[in-house]
Amino acid sequence: MDRAQKEQLVDELGQIFESSGVVVVAHYVGLTVAEMQDLRARARNAGGAVRVAKNRLAKIALEGKPCASIADLLTGMTVLTYSEDPVAAAKVAQDFAKENQKFVILGGAMGENALDVAGVESVSKMPSREELISTIAGMLGAPASNIAGAIGAPASNIASILSTIEDKAA
């Protein structure tokens, strides 16, 4: 890898560290190519990505970024799982780690907040952005449907009373 490629990689990693809602760092010693492809596919389906990069270049890219605290975790064979959604990458990494002992989560960062292994696990248990939006939308829609039901109920009661009176009169 020549100097220009290294500079380009550092720029790409810098953009990843700056724009990601969460970055999870893990060791992947002993994972097969098929297992890594499975991890990448899971991350892609969740709206995230997986990146293996040289630790030295990743540390350079971390300088001055909000998640610079993860630089200490970058030792040995590390893989970065990241996403804009603050929960997606943590969920993918945590689920994959449960199924595969060779994938060991070291920690991560959520913005400026450093996460240890327990922190990554806690983040993975939080609802995703889409789940939160659907919950809020459901809560906002509930009062409107209750009002519509309350407004519509008296009219149906009046209609049934009128039909009962009409039946008696006939």
From TrEMBL:
The record, for CDD domains, names: Ribosomal_L10
Q: Which GO terms describe its cellular component?
A: ribosome
Which InterPro entries does the UniProt entry name for this protein? Ribosomal_uL10 (IPR001790), Ribosomal_uL10-like_sf (IPR043141), Ribosomal_uL10_bac (IPR022973), Ribosomal_uL10_bac_type (IPR047865), Ribosomal_uL10_CS_bac (IPR002363)
UniProt xrefs under Pfam families: Ribosomal_L10 (PF00466)
Q: Which PROSITE patterns match?
A: RIBOSOMAL_L10
SUPFAM superfamilies assigned: Ribosomal protein L10-like (SSF160369)
Gene3D superfamilies membership = 3.30.70.1730, 6.10.250.290
Q: Does the keyword Ribonucleoprotein apply?
A: yes
Which key words are in the record? Ribonucleoprotein, Ribosomal protein, RNA-binding, rRNA-binding
* Similarity section: Belongs to the universal ribosomal protein uL10 family.
- Subunit note: Part of the ribosomal stalk of the 50S ribosomal subunit. The N-terminus interacts with L11 and the large rRNA to form the base of the stalk. The C-terminus forms an elongated spine to which L12 dimers bind in a sequential fashion forming a multimeric L10(L12)X complex.
Matches recorded under HAMAP family: Ribosomal_uL10
Free-text function comment from the UniProt entry:
Forms part of the ribosomal stalk, playing a central role in the interaction of the ribosome with GTP-bound translation factors.
What is the protein name given in its UniProt record?
Large ribosomal subunit protein uL10
Could you tell me the gene encoding this protein? Answer: rplJ
